Amino acid sequence: MDAEQISMLREVLSVTGWLDRTSEFGRALRVTSRTPGGLLLVGTPGDDPWHLAAHLDDESRLGGAPGLAPTLVRWSPPPGAPAHLGIGLDRLEAARRGETVFVVAEEDAPVPLLERVDDARRTGATVLALEGGDRELRGLAHEALTVPPQEALLSFDGAQHLVSAAAGEEPASGRPGLRHRLARLLETVTGPTLD
Predict the structure, then answer these.
(1) C-alpha closest to that of 23 among 134, 184, 152, 182
(2) Nearest 5°: phi and psi at 72?
(3) What would the pLDDT profile of 96-151 be if each residue is shown by its tens digit?
(4) Residue 105, SS3?
(5) CA–CA distance, 60 with 179 (Å, rounded to integer)
(6) In the chain, is it the N or the C terminus that has fewer CB atoms within a 10 Å radius of its CB?
(7) Residue 47: beta bridge partners?
(8) How far apart are the first and last CA of the chain?
(9) What is the rounded CA–CA span in Å between residue 13 and residue 6?
(10) What is the pLDDT of residue 178?
C-alpha cells in the first residue's frame, strides 16, 4: 500500500463511520469481558478465529485487561491438543452470567452454533457478534457489528483488526484514541503527510 492509498484510506474510513462503529463495538467488547477466561471466542465450523484470538491476547497483555484474553472455542479440537487449543463447543454450554460469548462469523452461523449461543444468552452470558449479514445471529446478540460481504472499503479481516485495537484501549485513560493510533501507524509506514 503506497502513501496515496493510505491517505485515501484514512479519509474514507473517517467519512464512512467505520472507525466509529468498530471503536464502539471494541469498547462493548472490553466492557463486557472483565473475567479472566470468560471471553469465549468462537467461529464457524470451517473458520476458527485464530487471528483475532492472537490480537485480543496481545491487547489483553499490552493493555492490562485480563478479561480480553480469549478462550478459543473450537468445533473439533484434535485429540491430545494442548489445553488452550482443546476447548470444544461444550464450553459454550457452560457459559454463565459474567461471561461473554463472542461469535465471529463472516458466513451464516450454522443452527447448532445458534442454538448454543441462544442457550448461553438464556443463562446470562453476554453475546457479541461480528458477522457478515446473518440476521439470526444478529438477533441473538446483545451487540453486533455487521460487515456486509459487498462492503468495498473494509474487509471482514480489517474489521477484526480495528475491533481488537479498539478493545485494547482504555477509555479516558489519556492513551491516544484508535484514530490517532491508526494515523501514527500509517505515518510510520509511509512517512509524514505533507500539505
Answers:
(1) 182
(2) -80, 115
(3) 999 999 999 999 999 999 999 999 999 999 999 999 999 999 999 999 999 999 88
(4) strand
(5) 19
(6) C
(7) 44
(8) 20
(9) 10
(10) 58
Cell triple for residue 137? Answer: 445471529
Q: Position 126: which residue type?
A: T
Q: DSSP H helical segments within the chain, as ranges?
A: 3-16, 18-32, 50-63, 90-93, 111-122, 135-140, 156-167, 178-190
Q: Is 24 left (phi over 0), alpha (psi -120 to 50) or beta?
A: alpha
Residue 71 pLDDT exceeds 60: yes
- Tell me the per-residue pLDDT of 12-44, one tens digit each, with 9 for 90 and over: 777 788 888 988 999 999 999 888 889 999 999
Show the cell assigned to 128.
Answer: 457479541
Sorted by sequence, the CB contacts under 8 Å of residue 167 that are 6+ apart come out as: 26, 27, 29, 30, 33, 56, 59, 65, 68
Cell (9 digits) for 164:
481488537
Residue that wins the pLDDT comparison between 144 and 87: 144
Q: Comparing 43 with 188, which gets the higher pLDDT?
A: 43
User: Cα separation of 100 and 42, whole Å?
Assistant: 11
